[in-house]
Amino acid sequence: MMEFITPLVKEGGCDTIFVMPNLQPPIIKVSDALAYHEKLSRLAPGVTFLMSLYLHPELSAATIAEAARTKIIHGVNLRIHTKTLYYLP
User: What is the pTM assigned to this prediction?
Assistant: First the structure.
């Protein structure tokens, strides 16, 4: 689905997207978020993708600090049933 939808984002009038990947397994590692960012960027050049990590018991404060230093990962999200909570450092 990513390969079909992502190239159409700019056509839909969006040039900046806050990405909350709801994937299995969840994206909790900086390297996984950066790899996902690279895939999205290749599919939609000219779109700014603001990445996030998924709040998970394995996600440490050190990982959040590392993510913040990338300037690509901009937050942490948690999806509870139908509500989404955000933490933006």
Answer: 0.84
